[in-house]
Design a protein that fits this description.
heterodimer, A: mainly alpha, Four Helix Bundle (Hemerythrin (Met), subunit A), 0% strand, globular, B: mainly alpha, Helix Hairpins, 75% helix
Chain lengths: 161, 102
Amino acid sequence: MHDQLFWFFSIAMLLSGLLVILGRNPVTSAMFLVLSLFFMAGLFVLLEAYFLAIIQILVYAGAVIVLFLFVIMLLDLKTENVRQFKRFGVFGALVVAGALAWKLTSVVSAVLAAAAKPVVGTTEAMGKLLFTQYLLPFEVTSVLLLIAMVGVVVLSRKETK
Amino acid sequence: MIPVTLEHYLIVSGLLFSLGLAGVMTRRNALVVFMSLELMLNASNLALVAFSRFNGNLHGQVFVFFIITVAAAEVAVGLAIIVALFRRRQTVQVDEITSMRL
């Protein structure tokens, strides 16, 4: 059951990822990105990272994609469907991405997993780590979010001179 | 059927990363380039979670938590930049934005 679900989730995720970069309309791309992120959350569940699966859906599908769609609607791109791809980009991308994919997939056979007891990423276990060992990075992250928020407000303000 | 191991997850992660890279390199629309960037971030997240699971170590998942947070902040700032750029230039095509000054 676990294996079948793995194949289903990963093939569906890669297909929707492909449709993200092939879609003509940015809204279609955004929708396939949501789908891809959902299947990724499914893979996280298979890896027993339950907390991260929920965070993935809440943060990505909930916040990030809404932001994307909001900006797409705000920009109202009408004269869009002329040329989607860069002129010389496609060939270069095929070569580079193909080489990278080949290299990455051929290198993993050298990776050995330590035969350790598998961990379960429950909210409790994650919370314990976050509030003990990773307390300082956790607090710094909140400052980072504040900086990002202020930055966005400054960037999107209308200039009044 | 062969059982699913760490390798399978890493191969899927590598393929997704390459897909994102291809998207960043080929697309003209800055928004779609940005979405491809998100795909690459997610691919790295998958690799981290897979390593974390198969090595019996929860720290990788904590890292993914931080990556997701930073990615959310990055998306907010990036989209604000795209909106500001669109206001000045009336375009989001990356190959039409060629000069450094606005």
